[in-house]
Amino acid sequence: MGIVLTPQENTAIRRKIAKVLAGEPGLGARAISNRTGVSAATCSQVLFGSPDFFSATGSPPNWKNRRSPAAKKRVAKKATYSAAKKSKSSTKAKPSKSKPSDEGKKRLKKSERTENWDNFDILGKLPTMASLKLYQWQKQAFAAWVEAGRSGVVNAVTGAGKTRLALAAIRDQLGRRGRIVIVVPNQTLQEQWYLEIKERFPGRSIGRLGSGHKQTLQDCQILIAVAASGRRYSFGIEKNSNCLLIADECHRYASPENRKVLEEGFNTRLGLTATHERMDNLHLEVLLPYFGGIVYNFGYRDAIDAKVIAPFRFAFVGASFTKKEQKRYDELSEELKNLRSKLVKGFGAADQPFSAYLADLQNFKNNGPKQAGILSGMWEKRWTERRHLMAGSQEKLKNLDRIRNIFLDADRSLVFTMSIESAEEVVALLRSRGIASAVHSSKISGEERRKMLDAFANGRIKVLASVVTLEEGVDVPEADLGIIIGSTAQRRQMIQRMGRVIRKKPDKRYARFVYMFIKGTVEDPSQGAHESFLQELWRVADEIDSFKIPGDVGQLRTFLKPKRRSKVMSKSG
Fold first, then answer.
1. What is the pTM of this model?
2. Which of 149, 219, 294, 391 would you label with 39, given CA atoms 20 to 30 Å apart?
3. Beta-strand relationship, 179-184 and 213-214
4. What is the distance between the alpha carbons of residues 421 and 564, in angstroms, rounded to a whole number?
């Protein structure tokens, strides 16, 4: 997530960048970072957030300083003189027409569009901003977005209330007699947004694109589009219109295909995400230039201090490999070490931080030398195999069986794994112990997944085991216990996994997490696993502790009691 800079820090960094660009115009963010000693992410944040000082061309952007005010005056004076000199012989120029860019997308004819049953002629009275009951952070984020010209990205942890912030932007846009397109990644989110807007803005016409619907802004004031359809069909933005794009989970729309949803006809834009940064760095090439930068950040510490998410406890449970698993782990680790050395020494991949190394691998695969791309693919394949090996460890499954009574204390529980096979093993184990469980995965249809979530909500299912299908766009407010069997190095995925559990509870009970790891591996906190995401969680967890299983089963269950209020000293900090 981007860093929140004070005005003084922003000014100081801007001066450093301006000084570098004065001598070397046309540098990219990484080159500027190397010359200023400021991280590339922070440089990009300042560059995109200072359009009066810097301008960019190309993709990825190459930056230069804008002219000074004095220089602008000289140019303006010269231009005025030239125009006056030619005025007698020239004709009045026609104003340029603002044509929305939907190139390559099909424009739906009226006969092709499905009927919009919610297209009312009578406009309902708009709700007041006060009726939206915004948290303080949402008010601040909305104000920052407006101040930035109603364009920008808001980073906020999952569960903090990004949807409510978007409702404020929708209320503002309707009050300005504008139209709105909301782009979402999947049908589940489309349905959630549709129901929310229908309730909040009665009488306003709501259309849908995707999931069997074919409507455009010609049919409605508010259009909710699934990205897969939004990249194929034009939204129907009229020339010179006042139109707002709300891009939910906006980090997804930087890929070559998905970026087609980012039409140029929108004069106001709001990107919402847990964190905009991508491992392939396309947030620098696509997202930040399109949205105009980051306008607000709201992290875990902010959310806990503001009491908009539940406080949580974090327990660590270690396990050991079998001899066979250990042997394969060692083989894969050696291969990964050798491949990484070749990529760093031979092709200049970043050695540290790990996120920069992964980003370089993506670049090698997409645009780099052929050999670098091959080595990157080999490294990623072995890395994935090693992660699956750790997630599917038999000792982890045995430990889960030993601590299974923690599920009896929870209201609802989520178990996150690395593969469908390991999720199925978890569910088979829990069912054999009489615990109602199910696998939520891509192997079952969307309708079956919705029915499964309904059963989870009403208590007929107590535990859901998932790979990635619960990580984005699925609201599961009933969960209060999360078991992480398969971890991920991607910060966004961890924020999304946490978000499924840390939403505020009606009875103010704590959220709880159990992180299961293999000792002596890259999962082990003592081996540096905290460098990817755990350190951030430790800083904000209400309590952390580590437990040895089977000896500490009773202590672990006590630690995870949902309504226990007393704090204990951490043994793992």
1. 0.73
2. 149
3. unpaired
4. 35
Beta-bridged to residue 296, according to DSSP, are 154
Helical ranges in 418-464 per DSSP H: 420-432, 446-457
Least confident of 63-72, 229-238, 251-260: 63-72
Cβ–Cβ under 8 Å, residues 514 and 480: no
Non-local CB neighbours of 72 within 8 Å, separated by 6+ positions: none
Highest mean pLDDT among 98-102, 144-148, 155-159: 144-148
Q: Exposure pattern of 297-309 as b/e (b: 16+ CB <10 Å)?
A: bbbbebbbeeebb
Residue 60, preceding peptide bond in cis (omega within 30° of 0): yes
Would you say 248 and 193 are in contact if contact means Cβ atoms under 8 Å apart?
Answer: yes
Question: Cα–chain-centroid distance for residue 539?
Answer: 21
Q: What is the pLDDT of residue 468?
A: 64
Tell me how far apart the alpha carbons of residues 233 and 496 are, in angstroms, rounded to a whole number: 29
Is residue 260 pLDDT above 50, yes or no?
yes
Q: Is 384 left (phi over 0), alpha (psi -120 to 50) or beta?
A: alpha
In the CATH scheme, what architecture does the domain 113-305 have?
Answer: 3-Layer(aba) Sandwich (3.40)
Instruction: Count Cα neighbours of 367 within 13 Å in the Cβ-side half-sphere.
Output: 7
Cβ–Cβ under 8 Å, residues 423 and 449: no
- pLDDT for 490 equals 60
Q: What's the CATH number for 312-320+393-559?
A: 3.40.50.300
Q: Is the pLDDT of residue 441 over 70?
A: yes
Look up residue 227 and give its two tokens.
């990205």
For 379, how many CA atoms within 13 A lie in the half-sphere containing its CB? 23
What is the Cα–Cα distance from 62 to 78, expressed in whole angstroms? 28
Query: In degrees, to the nearest 5, what angle opens at C-alpha 32 toward C-alphas 29 and 33?
Result: 85
Token duo for residue 529: 């696993």
User: Whole-angstrom Cα distance, residue 33 to residue 19?
Assistant: 13
In single-letter form, the type of residue at position 552 comes to D
Would you list the DSSP string of 109-135?
PGGGSPP-TT--SSPPPPPPTGGG---
Q: Which residues contact 301 (CB under 8 A, 6 or more apart)?
A: 539, 540
Both tokens assigned to 432: 């054999």
The continuous run of DSSP H or E covering 65 comes out as: strand 62-65
Higher-confidence residue: 417 or 476? 417
Please give the Cα distance from 84 to 78 (Å, whole number).
Answer: 10
Q: Hey, is 61 helix, strand or coil?
A: coil
The DSSP output letter for 287 is I
Nearest C-alpha neighbor of 284 from the set 65, 60, 47, 64? 60
Residues 314/537, Cβ–Cβ less than 8 Å: yes
Q: Determine the topology of domain 7-65 in CATH.
A: Arc Repressor Mutant, subunit A (1.10.10)
Cβ neighbours around 435 below 10 Å, total:
17
* Confidence label for 472 from pLDDT (cuts 50, 70 and 90): low
